[in-house]
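Subject: design request, 98 residues
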C-alpha cells in the first residue's frame, strides 16, 4: 500500500495563522483595557484620600457627623477590596514548580 503524502494547503495555513494573530491581538487589547480600570480607580482613590487628609488638617472634618465619615470609610474600604480582587483576577497564574 502506498501512502500518498499531500502537501498542506498554503491558503488554509495562512488563514489559520491570520485568525490566530487576530485572536492574540484581541486578547492583548482586552488585558490592557482590564488593567486601565483598576489603575484609574486607584488614582481617584489616592486623590480623594489626599484631599481628605488636607481637609482634615484644616480641622473641617471635626464639624461633620460620625455617620458621614463612617459612610465614606465604608465606601473607601469597599473600593480597596474591589481593587484587590480585580488585581487578583488579572494577575497571571504561574504553575507550581515540580
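Subject: RE: design request

Done. Sequence follows.
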Amino acid at each position: 500500500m502506498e501512502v500518498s503524502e499531500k502537501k498542506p494547503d498554503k491558503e488554509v495555513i495562512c488563514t489559520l495563522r491570520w485568525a490566530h494573530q487576530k485572536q492574540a491581538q484581541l486578547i492583548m487589547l482586552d488585558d490592557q483595557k482590564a488593567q486601565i480600570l483598576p489603575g484609574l480607580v486607584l488614582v481617584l482613590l489616592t486623590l480623594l484620600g489626599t484631599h481628605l487628609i488636607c481637609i482634615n488638617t484644616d480641622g473641617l472634618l471635626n464639624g461633620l457627623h460620625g455617620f458621614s465619615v463612617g459612610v465614606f470609610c465604608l465606601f473607601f474600604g469597599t473600593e480597596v477590596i474591589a481593587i484587590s480582587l480585580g488585581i487578583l483576577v488579572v494577575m497571571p497564574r504561574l504553575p507550581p514548580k515540580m
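The two ends are 46 Å apart (CA to CA).
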